[in-house]
Amino acid sequence: MPTWTSSAKDAVTTALGPSRVWATLGFGILNEVYWPATGRPQVRDLGFLVAGGGDWVEVKRAQAYRLETPSPCVPLPRLVHEGDGYRLELEIVPDPLRDVLLISHQLTGEGRLLYPLLAPHLGGSGHGNTAWVDGGLHAAKGAEALALLSATPFARASAGFVGASDGWQDFARNGAMTWEFARAENGNVALIGELPPGEGVLALGFAATPEGAATLAGSALAEGYEPIRERFVAGWETWRDGLKLPRGKAELRQEALLSAAVLKVHEDRTFPGATVASLSVPWGFAHDDAGGYHLVWARDAVETGLALLAIGDVEGAQRMLSYLAATQSSSGCWSQNFYPDGRPYWTGIQLDEVGFPILLAAKLRELGTVEETRIDGMVRSAAGYLARTGPLSPQDRWEENAGASPFTLAVEVAALIAAADWLEGDDREYVLALADCWNERIEDWTYVAGAELAEHYHVPGYYVRIGPPPVDGGLCGRIPVRNRAGESVPATALVGLDFLYLARLGLRDPHDPRITATLTVVDGELRAQLPTGVAYHRYEGDGYGEHADGSPFDGSGIGRPWPLLAGERGHAALLRGEDPRPYLESMARMTSPGGLIPEQVWDAEPIPERNLFPGKPSGSAMPLVWAHGEYLKLYTARAAKRPIELLPAVEQRYGGAAPTAATTWFWREQAPVTRLPAGRGLVIEATEPFTLHAGFDGWQAVSDRDSRPLGLGMHGVHLEPDEFAEHASLEFTRRLESGWEGRDWHVELA
User: Fold this and answer.
1) The pTM is what?
2) What does the alpha-carbon distance between residue 5 and residue 619 come to, in Å, rounded to a whole number?
3) Residues 331 and 366 grouped into a single domain
4) How confident is residue 656, by pLDDT bands cut at 50, 70 and 90?
5) Where does 447-495 have alpha helices with state H?
6) Domain shared by 504 and 372, yes or no
């Protein structure tokens, strides 16, 4: 069965120009190569065998190499492999003008020959590929083709089926290249070629036809390696010189420059502005999943866009916003994730992914760079979707649970406040009043006092990871723990760092006693002190990660610490007047040999045979673009003394404190009001017109009232505070357009 490769990457690279090829490197060789978009992997790997003197070695298995680049912000990887009797130098250069990768190779060693070993996975899968030999190594599947040509022609070559007649099997069985098969049709295929001794250049070209791929590869070889290399370096240096990156400790600044390059590498050019979460497939060596992380998540994309703004790449952030406007659904939301061309992959809804594009638009508007009509429509549509479907989200940011996540709620409220600048009249008044109500109720949905963890850590209470919907018992309910075979735990038993965005977006003071108390709990429950520094688990009992023996996640496992969350904790430290440098240092040290930040790091005893070492990358996604964005934002926030996400409009409205007397509360079935504080008006609302049938104190003084439009497509009946005087309760039901809703509701009046 075909599989992808390990997501333990050494480096990622692409050229800045018309070229549409993205390459990743791991274990000292090329592995997944993407074309013509970041969502389309076409090659499993391109490795090398070194043979001669009666023995042979596959360099990726020897793992005796080092990686170098000219500078952290120029992703030109140079690999030096050294073994018994040989030295192999490789340099990988994407051609800025063509859909071609050039690989310079130099092998020294008496009697040693070099054998490139290419595994096509055209069309995003190892199934159904056809490979053949014709002056070079060729493969095709449908309207996708590749060609690997050599400036010094192959001495011999062969095409075979993986595990049966491929070149690796030939060496494994015979100790040398003895097979020369001309063609392998419609299967999981691999190609091998023998290169003349010494040095040379390979060109890997991609096109819709075999002839086109060969033409591109051949023309790159004809132009020559050096001019293409110079053009590649010049493009990256020009981009680097336009960045605005604060000075800092050398180790930290180098990681910031590399992180900037990682973000830039992950932007698509077929679909400018599209930024995938990672050019990798978590635990890819164990499966053939077509998705992996080479998909766009609106949340991860905006986190990247904000990081680009933090380093002065305004144009990059503008392209991203334009792309998000084009991929927004007609209802105003974005799919859970999607291919760079906009096709949905998973189809869940996460309300933070609806709010984040508004925050990016607001930040660009703050800089005076957003005036496009299409963006205006995007913001209004997204705000309408939030207003109609919030505040509880069908999925949290970890894509596991429905309910009230402090992270999602913070993004929703900040987004609604930001969207008000694009709205007028009833729409504007409604969105501001709704945001005030939701902000004031965050603690009702997510903060618990006196529970078991509070007693254990001697604090009055804490924010939970997520509060279940009221129909599931709210804070008294249970949370299904995904990836743990149907296990569920009380909502009060799970904490996470999700609450930190309440302060980061300006909804709560970072010194709020509830924030401080929850920091005590999460530092006790989730903090992992590792040889490389500090990272945090998502939540206790997380099942997304390797098993105890290091075997890959297969639907269950043990969640490992996330460097990304060290960045979030560092932002909290910054807001509280502390130096976040220890968190930056941790993130910078939990990287691959090439400085890439992983999704998770290993936190158990070392397992060398699985390349698992404490504090270093596990087999999950690497690089994680969101983590590199978080690093950049923390690095720049340390100099600016404030997070880039903190919008003046939110800061001015709330000043870090929840409104303690929002004039109006909003009742909706998804988030009902069970007890209304004194002095508040109440709006009973729905997404369609209705008649309210209501009474007081056990259905006394019953009356009917027709709803009116509130704004943003919502309808409601507004009950003023003086109507509740001397009443203990409100009872009501509604006649919707489809008829009576069939149940009564009760609100206790304070």
Assistant:
1) 0.96
2) 10
3) yes
4) confident
5) 452-457
6) yes
CA dist 36 and 625 (Å) reads: 20
**132 within a domain of the structure (yes/no):** yes
Q: What is the pLDDT of residue 333?
A: 98
Q: Which of 238, 267, 297 is the last residue of a domain?
A: 238
pLDDT at 374: 83
Contacts of 483 (CB under 8 A, 6+ apart): 542, 543, 544, 553, 555, 556, 557, 559
Query: Do 188 and 285 share a domain, yes or no?
Result: no
Domain shared by 614 and 707, yes or no = no
DSSP letter string, 359-417: HHHHHHHHTT----HHHHHHHHHHHHHHHHH-SSBSS-TTSS--BB-HHHHHHHHHHHH
Q: Could you tell me if 315 and 400 lie in one domain?
A: yes
Kindly state the DSSP code that residue 677 receives in the 8-state scheme. Answer: P
d(Cα 350, Cα 347) in Å, to the nearest integer?
A: 10
- Half-sphere exposure for 463 (CA within 13 Å, toward CB): 28
Q: What band does 368 get if pLDDT is binned at 50, 70 and 90?
A: confident
Residues 675 and 645 reside in one and the same domain: no
Q: Give the pLDDT confidence of 193-213 residue by residue, as tens digits.
A: 999 999 999 999 999 999 999
State the average pLDDT for the chain: 96
Task: State phi, psi for 184 to the nearest 5 degrees.
Answer: -130, 115
What phi and psi values does residue 679 have, to the nearest 5 degrees? 85, 10
Q: How far is CA 341 from the centre of its chain?
A: 17
Is the pLDDT at 590 greater than 80, yes or no?
A: yes
**Is residue 528 domain-shared with residue 554, that is, in the same domain?**
yes
Query: Which residues form the domain of 428?
Result: 242-654
Residue 48 resides in a domain: yes
Residue 529 belongs to what H/E stretch?
strand 527-530
Do 524 and 414 share a domain, yes or no?
yes
User: Is residue 290 predicted with pLDDT exceeding 80?
Assistant: no
Instruction: Find the CATH number of the domain harbouring 74.
Output: 2.70.98.10
476 part of a folded domain: yes
What pLDDT shows up at residue 371? 64
